[in-house]
Specification:
Largest sheet: 12 strands, parallel
Radius of gyration: 25 Å
Strand content: 5-15%
Helix content: 25-40%
Order of helices and strands: HHEHEHEHEHEHEHEHEHHEHEHEHEH
Number of strands: 12
Number of helices: 15
Shape: globular
Structural class: alpha/beta
Distance between the termini: 65 Å
């Protein structure tokens, strides 16, 4: 698709780095029209269309300013496939039309709102000239029963990326059922929802279940990216990761309540030398395991590209130690450390060092502690997050950018996204997710009220 959307003789503007709604709708509708125009059997026929390389961006540079995200692309392609089938059934078509078979490679994004449509398109795939081939699958705001049903329809044997997020109530026993019933031989990336694991309430049966899940993940020989944020995994990282046959390149264990034994395993495991992206947010690194953390950094320094240490209680007294640990990481491109209690002075000291990292491109830094009222406690709750001296912050941010400019590092983008980085998938479906949360809250209140009424 990149070549088709790039600069051409008839249209000089490069559209390949956008997800313009008008442009993508024209491309996908054009696929349907291609089938209906039944090209001559003597001509070269289109066999594959790859839509997987599209990158959803925050700022759209097209004239319409409207984006078509992953959810909308899933919706439109499913709709076109079903419309095409209906048209072929109702119209006298050229017999050659039914010989056309085009694999459309796509990253599917399914929620409650588009579930039925996508299921119908997948069920009728064998009859449709446009064949949806799911390379990556993201599921949010979906009942477990529906998730298990649709994941089988996607042909899991071809799946390379699986994201189960937010409002899919997947717990450890469900994950074991998933891995026992479905094989993912080509899976490279796995994201699990919050609280999939919670070792605080583990029984002997749960321990065996965790071991089995680790062994099943070990059978996924292509798996190199794993995200398990907001699960409670204290003391169990080794049990889960040691069966893996392939070293991880990306690991997100943010807010997983890791202890010293977990960090020691990570630092000494074969994964350490291959980690390109690491997220350890939500762990009190300076107080709990500073030396073992820097050992992990040392082992991964030759390949580490992205490091996230948000809400890690990194204070002014730890900055020199942090600089020492980051110094070998010469390939670091992204460093995020929001939510740490650092002063303006400490940030300036740290930025002076960051200028020396040759490949650094993106820095997310916290609002300086001295911009908040005296006595503020960390981690800062959402209600207090915006209650800082904005004028003072802007002044400090200018000074930090000046440090970058004076070091000829205009290529480095420094920002403070208070509520996290831009997430295209969340942004696209936030209305649906918001409605779901309100509904859940309402149901919880009703249950609580009913309980009180029964008691009285």
């Amino acid at each position: 698709m990149g070549k088709l959307l790039g600069t051409t003789v008839d249209y000089q503007e490069d559209l390949s780095h956008r997800t313009c709604s008008v442009c993508l709708e024209s491309c996908l509708t054009g696929l349907r029209d291609y089938v209906l125009n039944h090209p001559s059997p003597y001509m070269n026929r289109l066999k594959v269309v790859d839509l997987t390389g599209m990158k959803d961006v925050e700022v759209q540079f097209c004239e319409c300013k409207k984006t078509m995200g992953r959810w909308a692309r899933t919706q439109l392609l499913s709709k076109l496939c079903l419309e095409l089938l209906v048209y072929l059934q109702q119209t006298q078509c050229n017999p050659g039309t039914f010989e056309i078979s085009i694999d459309v490679l796509i990253d599917l994004f399914v929620t409650e709102r588009n579930y039925e449509l996508v299921v119908q398109a997948l069920l009728k795939k064998c009859y449709c000239p446009l064949k949806i081939c799911c390379v990556a699958f993201r599921s949010d705001n979906l009942a477990l029963q529906k998730f298990f049903y649709i994941i089988k329809l996607t042909d899991p044997s071809l799946l390379r990326k699986l994201e189960i997020v937010h409002n899919v109530r997947l717990e450890m026993e469900h994950l074991e059922i998933l891995f026992n019933s479905i094989h993912f031989p080509l899976l490279m990336s796995l994201t699990l929802p919050a609280r999939t694991f919670n070792v605080r309430r583990f029984t002997a049966t749960d321990e065996r279940m965790l071991t089995n899940i680790g062994e099943k993940m070990g059978e996924m020989t292509q798996l190199t990216e794993l995200s398990m944020s907001f699960s409670v995994l204290t003391g169990r990282i080794q049990k889960l990761l040691s069966p893996l046959k392939t070293p991880l390149k990306t690991l997100d264990v943010s807010n997983c309540s890791l202890n010293h034994a977990d960090m020691a395993y990570l630092a000494n495991s074969f994964h350490a030398n291959h980690l390109e992206a690491l997220d350890l947010s939500g762990h009190n690194i300076p107080d709990l395991y500073p030396s073992i953390f820097f050992k992990l950094l040392s082992h991964s320094s030759s390949v580490l590209r992205s490091l996230t240490l948000e809400d890690c209680n990194i204070q002014d007294t730890h900055v020199n130690m942090l600089i020492l640990g980051l110094s070998p990481c010469q390939k670091l491109q992204e460093f995020k450390f929001l939510g740490n209690p650092l002063s303006s002075q400490a940030l300036k000291h740290l930025f002076t060092f960051l200028c020396e990292l040759p490949m650094l491109k993106n820095v997310e830094f916290p609002v300086p502690r001295d911009c908040y009222p005296t006595g503020i406690t960390y981690p800062i709750d959402d209600a207090s997050l915006c209650r800082f001296d904005h004028q003072k912050y802007e002044s400090v941010a200018e000074e930090l950018n000046l440090i970058l400019l004076q070091a000829n590092r205009e290529d480095v983008k420094a920002s403070t996204p208070l509520f996290g980085s831009y997430d295209a998938a969340v942004q696209e479906t936030n209305n649906e997710l918001g409605a779901y949360l309100i509904k859940s809250f309402k149901e919880t209140l009703e249950k609580f009220t009913n309980s009180l009424n029964k008691m009285s």
